Amino acid sequence: MDNEKNPQVKWWKSLLGKKWTFPAIYLIASVLIVTLMWTKSDTGNYQLSKEDSIFKAPQEEYVIDQPITAAPQNPETVELEEAVPVTAEDVQVSWPLEMSEKAKIVTSFYSETASAEERSKAVYEYTDKTTTKFIHSKGIGIVSGEEKFDVFAVANGEVTMAEEDALYGMKVKISHGDGLETVYASLSKVTVKVGDEVKAGMKIGQAGKSEIRKDLPNHLYFEAYKLGEAIDPVSILPEAPVVRTQG
Questions:
Q1: Could you tell me which of 153, 141, 137 has the C-alpha nearest to residue 91?
Q2: What is the number of alpha carbons within 13 Å of residue 42 lying toward its C-beta?
Q3: In Å, what is the CA distance from 44 to each residue of 31, 33, 41, 51, 53?
Q4: What residue stretch is flagged as signal peptide (predicted)?
Q5: 196-243 confidence digits (pLDDT tens)
């Protein structure tokens, strides 16, 4: 009897007696259950935009040679750029070795604008402990028979590097002014030091062998740079009877 007099009990009985009460309770419970399930399953995932890497178009890659002026490391994958043109009139230049019938260019400078045949002469293979790489040459490889030969500065300048490299052997870098630099590598002997002033035709070392070009006999690996960009060394050298061969 006391329960019937209680206003709260009367209100609940009145509410439960209405036709829409149970459907409303069912709907509210369903919403709560769905909300709890969605909250627990949310892992924080978000929709990718076009700025995310998965939407970026793949870029073509080239495996090319590291400049031998850099610290020894595996060749990196970068996009090739056009070589900066230069003429021999900028600096008076001579060949880095004594010209003879034995002198041959066995590795060419890699240029994307060259013919397929010329590009093939500018790619060489290097195998380390685990992988084999095909490297695009940033310079030229020169032999003179199979013997060692003297290497000369191609122009007046100052020695800015003289050190040994694990892959390229001993190497020398000379700054000639007007933005021109030359690098001489695969040397078995170096006769200059950093800070030395050199003249064109002055002996700076002797050609030898290198780890990265085990397939070649004694040779000189010669690079040229104009304003920091690798250029074809042949473009700055005077005409000479040097034979180009398949390399």
A1: 153
A2: 8
A3: 22, 20, 9, 19, 19
A4: none
A5: 999 999 999 999 999 999 999 999 999 999 999 999 999 999 986 555
73-108 pLDDT per residue, tens: 333 333 333 334 444 445 688 999 998 889 999 999
DSSP category for residue 238: P
Q: How far apart are CA 113 and CA 219, in angstroms?
A: 26
What is the CATH code for 62-244?
2.70.70.10
Contacts for 170 with CB less than 8 Å, ≥ 6 apart? 162, 163, 164, 185, 186, 187, 188, 189, 190, 205, 208
| Adjacent-strand bridge partners of 77 | 63
DSSP letter assigned to residue 150 = E
pTM score of the predicted model: 0.63
Least Cα distance to 142 among 53, 221, 216 occurs for 221
Which residue from 85, 95, 34 is spatially nearest to 241, judged by alpha carbons?
Answer: 95
The whole-number pLDDT of residue 66 equals 44
